[in-house]
Design goal:
This protein is of the alpha/beta class. It has one domain (7-210): Vaccinia Virus protein VP39 (Rossmann fold, 3-Layer(aba) Sandwich). Helix content is 40%, strand content 21%. The protein is built from eight helices and seven strands. The protein has helices at 7-15, 22-34, 43-57, 71-77, 93-103, 119-125, 142-149, 176-190, and strands spanning 61-65, 85-90, 112-116, 130-135, 153-162, 194-199, 205-210. The chain has a seven-stranded mixed β-sheet with strand order 3-2-1-4-5-7-6, with helices on both faces. The chain starts with 6 loop residues before the first helix and ends with a strand. 41% of the residues are buried. It binds S-adenosylmethionine.
């Protein structure tokens, strides 16, 4: 991933944002040592943004697409109210197993319901409505996820999609994945149901508010 801003400035922004819990630090360190592509973890700055938006919207029913080892899920669960609930879709049993192990060590882990399997199939079985959605799985399906989820997002609810600048490759898409991310951004921009802003945080975060 190509950093969008100078690393020292990114570190400064991270140091001046809500820090992660000790368990989140451990989870990130474990992922770095034991998992392939540990850079998929959103990290503490983006997690602070997610947590802020979850709190601002008073979200109770959250959907995540792309659990990995559970960093974003645990970050959100920690700020959900006691009766809050997060459904997280994940394809890999190995990733889900690591996430469950860490979630089970948190007093907030019981709020997270992991659904194993291809997320598009899982979404068909979920009724909604959701207050908050975090989209962070395979980029080729971003638009399909968006189309499946928007009808289940309550009016005033938020959807955040990660990696929407795709290390800058959206500017000159060459590969299918580049085109998928660019197509997703264009579709959101044209969607009459959406208020949206593309934040240049980390690898780009699209924030969508359902009208
Ligand atoms: C970028 S990672 C998610 C990172 C996570 N949000 C975090 O902060 O640690 C994407 C995850 O999506 C999962 N994934 C990929 N294709 C999927 C699919 N079709 N259905 C469900 N999950 C999928 C991958 O196994 C991977 O764990």
């Amino acid at each position: 991933m190509i950093p969008l801003i100078d690393q020292a400035l990114d570190d400064y922004a991270t140091r001046h944002s809500e820090p992660p819990s000790q368990l989140l630090r451990e989870l990130e360190a474990y992922t770095r040592v034991h998992c392939q592509n540990p850079e998929m973890v959103i990290g503490s700055l983006e997690a602070a943004l997610l947590r802020m938006l979850v709190k601002l919207t008073g979200a109770r029913r959250v959907l995540e697409i792309g659990l990995f080892t559970g960093y974003s899920a645990l970050s959100i669960a920690e700020v959900l109210p006691a009766d809050g609930h997060l459904v997280s879709c994940e394809l890999s049993p190995e990733h889900a197993g690591i996430a469950r192990t860490f979630l089970d060590r948190s007093p907030h882990g019981g709020k997270v319901d992991i659904r194993l399997g291809p997320a598009l199939a899982t979404l068909e079985q979920l009724a909604g409505p959701f207050d908050f959605v975090f989209l962070d799985a395979d980029k080729e399906n971003y638009l399909a996820y968006y189309q499946a989820v928007m009808p289940k997002l309550r009016s005033g609810g938020l959807l955040l999609a990660d990696n929407v600048l795709w290390s800058g490759r959206v500017l000159q898409p060459r590969e299918d994945t580049d085109r998928a991310v660019a197509t997703f951004n264009d579709a959101v921009q044209r969607d009459p149901r959406a208020d949206n802003v593309l934040l240049t945080v980390r690898d780009g975060v699209m924030v969508v508010r359902r009208r």
